[in-house]
């Protein structure tokens, strides 16, 4: 395959663009540190630049070349999943790539699979790799060019201009410094796999690579050398050729020079035994595993923020330092957590995925019940009995500082302009079926949206929290990414717009169908049915050339499904009172609900429509009071107050009778669960925006255990009276259908 049907230009290089290459890139990202991920991409680009200038390589399979180059160093996997105990890292990477391709590209033949395997397994063995097939050679050219720089590529096949364009897009990120840590790690952990490749140049006593042993030890018996190899101390091997790693030593580009090779130390003429380093995972003697636990500082721990390494910004294999609260990647030698332990003296870390606690740099796991409170705060879990008891009794809890709070009624941090998000999450977390589902269900294999919402709801209801508020940062980051930055923590948005987007995307994240109703818990809780009757209106001129509107005789009827109902407010008064103030009108909730009684007509363009609710009504009804309208010039707010009783909202007048669900005239009672309120804050006269109103949001939620009401506005939580709920500008309400109509 000489070329791919689709290509794209990156850093001035034309490369193939196929779904399989995209999947390989994503897989490589999961199993690469940041510097390695940039390195493999540069290697691919350099390989295409060089190979496209060599006629003998023009007929190569470009997809094979790209995938082999991108995956050639997944044997460095920082997660450890792809690293074996007894194979060279090149073979680990080649095996992992072949397994990936067998799964993702079942139509690939054995020849293409073998080309990828050879290109990865042999890329450090210069004595072999440059005599292989064009795909393998092209891949090696790119990899070696990333270390050697343009000056060492023969024939000027890579210019400095081409090189610098690629590096500008994919910075080197101290490649040689990071590479040294990886190579030394392999010398420490599996020296027998470091012969006849670039790893052989690394290692220091007593952690020598196999090549280092061959050069430094005068005589060694076959039984005492790695893999039974017998080598005398000389620079030329027994078969007469100079070791590839010495003849083809790789160097970093001029802007990041390679360190000098390790100096040879004088050795005795006697045979030297191979040093086997003590495993780091060895636990201390019994009774001493609680060392360093007294250094843990619970007051600085905050597990609400996105789990990103504070050094590399990677989200893979992240640990939290229990002394300073910062996140670091990895816990092995040369990892950021390991260096933090050595440099600062912070020794206790928790894995944010497994909740296991380790002491570094020693590396042993700590199994101590005194750490259970930290694990619970990081990832709260609940039994079925605990969940069922949430609404039956009032619970009071205390933070680390002794501040009293009620689980479920905690503040939420407004990082900048995310109060529109806070009120929606607070309201949804008080819908019992939805709350219970996210408290009890495991979302380990679910999309990030569902997983992060579950964590946030579990923290809102945490009875053992270290502080009386939570931060939605982690969930907001995922929402910002998934909505293409439509909803962010830095820009104000409409809560109902966000709710609509959030419920639909959450429905899909939970496995819901776009066509099958009730296919997720979201639709089971909130979705209802609506009958819409439409009648066409036509405009005609009569004999006197006057315009007349005529209704069509035919009335069409259709069934629509909804997640929330929009209620229209009457127009605000245009005239002021005698004090030159605008009168704020009031309207009962039942009055604006009459839109759905099937009698009142609504005119939309050339259609006259009537709406009627249908049985069965949803267990929880979302009502949106439409307050904002926008024309070509300005956005207007309707300040009309909606009055209501928090209990005993009867929806039977708005539902088409159906004896299968309710007897005619029988009331259908709903009780208020949450009330989202808009509050306009007038800006200062000397501000840039003048006297424009700023939108802020708060939510009122009911404590089912005590029937008390709490008002939550960002971090501020206070009790309020039920009689005061309708004094604000209600914008969104959550109503719960009463199970017992007589209750």
Automatic annotation (TrEMBL):
<dbReference type="InterPro" id="IPR013083">
    <property type="entry name" value="Znf_RING/FYVE/PHD"/>
</dbReference>
<dbReference type="GO" id="GO:0016579">
    <property type="term" value="P:protein deubiquitination"/>
</dbReference>
<dbReference type="Pfam" id="PF02148">
    <property type="entry name" value="zf-UBP"/>
</dbReference>
<keyword id="KW-0508">mRNA splicing</keyword>
<keyword id="KW-0747">Spliceosome</keyword>
<dbReference type="InterPro" id="IPR050185">
    <property type="entry name" value="Ub_carboxyl-term_hydrolase"/>
</dbReference>
<dbReference type="InterPro" id="IPR003607">
    <property type="entry name" value="HD/PDEase_dom"/>
</dbReference>
<dbReference type="InterPro" id="IPR001607">
    <property type="entry name" value="Znf_UBP"/>
</dbReference>
<dbReference type="InterPro" id="IPR033809">
    <property type="entry name" value="USP39"/>
</dbReference>
<feature type="domain" description="USP">
    <location>
        <begin position="410"/>
        <end position="738"/>
    </location>
</feature>
<dbReference type="InterPro" id="IPR001394">
    <property type="entry name" value="Peptidase_C19_UCH"/>
</dbReference>
<dbReference type="GO" id="GO:0004843">
    <property type="term" value="F:cysteine-type deubiquitinase activity"/>
</dbReference>
<dbReference type="Pfam" id="PF01966">
    <property type="entry name" value="HD"/>
</dbReference>
<keyword id="KW-0863">Zinc-finger</keyword>
<comment type="similarity">
    <text>Belongs to the peptidase C19 family.</text>
</comment>
<dbReference type="InterPro" id="IPR038765">
    <property type="entry name" value="Papain-like_cys_pep_sf"/>
</dbReference>
<dbReference type="InterPro" id="IPR028889">
    <property type="entry name" value="USP"/>
</dbReference>
<feature type="region of interest" description="Disordered">
    <location>
        <begin position="251"/>
        <end position="288"/>
    </location>
</feature>
<keyword id="KW-0539">Nucleus</keyword>
<dbReference type="InterPro" id="IPR006674">
    <property type="entry name" value="HD_domain"/>
</dbReference>
<feature type="domain" description="UBP-type">
    <location>
        <begin position="288"/>
        <end position="385"/>
    </location>
</feature>
<dbReference type="Pfam" id="PF00443">
    <property type="entry name" value="UCH"/>
</dbReference>
<dbReference type="GO" id="GO:0000245">
    <property type="term" value="P:spliceosomal complex assembly"/>
</dbReference>
<keyword id="KW-0507">mRNA processing</keyword>
<protein>
    <submittedName>
        <fullName>Putative mRNA-splicing protein ubp10</fullName>
    </submittedName>
</protein>
<keyword id="KW-0479">Metal-binding</keyword>
<dbReference type="GO" id="GO:0005681">
    <property type="term" value="C:spliceosomal complex"/>
</dbReference>
<keyword id="KW-0862">Zinc</keyword>
<dbReference type="GO" id="GO:0008270">
    <property type="term" value="F:zinc ion binding"/>
</dbReference>
